[in-house]
Specification:
By secondary structure, the protein is α/β, with parallel strands linked by helices. It is built from six helices and twelve strands. The strands form three sheets. Strands 2-1-3-10-5-11-8-7 form an eight-stranded mixed sheet, with helices on one face.
Length: 216
Amino acid sequence: MNFETTFPYRLYLNLGRSDERRQTVEAHFFERGLTARRQAAVDGKWLRRAKGYASPNRLAQALGQRLSIRRAQVARAPAMFLFEDDLVLASDWRQKVEQIALPDGWGIFMLGALHIHPPVQCAPGLVRCTCAVDHHAIGFRAEHYTTVRRIMRGHAIEQHPDPNRTCDVRLAEWQDRIPTYAAWPNLAWQSGADANTNYDAEGRQILFPEAVAGLH
């Protein structure tokens, strides 16, 4: 896969409270040979209601992603990729992603994910997700823009006993209907510099290790 050709529209979410995080992630992109434009994230402190999410901050996270996808939709991009500004890209991510061939009909592709249920290994370096969360590096195909935006709305498009689920959990519930794939091993993960990350320094998931125990 040629990453830039497959995902011609690339954004990263950044809150903008200070320049430090923006400068850090842009320097990291430069080191890894990647370009992406900034998308202003939504600040939860300005939201009065959670609108179906557990907190305004969780709603803000979903709104930032929905706005990013909407931006790609308006630009008529055939596919888009969205990064969070606290991610780490593997040093060899470029070489590894070039060896991945996404199957026809793919809908979502993640450079890294936290697998809650065991994925299906379908090709070298690629797994089909059954229940995977974390949107630190995620791409969408244009055919699914509208559906993904609706899934992330505060008021879900389907009834569910837990309306306070995060946006990545809501999207994971659709992975049997929107063909979702992820790189394996992870080529991107959440930095542990200022967060309680779900990954070790090499990008291996710490939570639910049994879900990926059978992969090689």
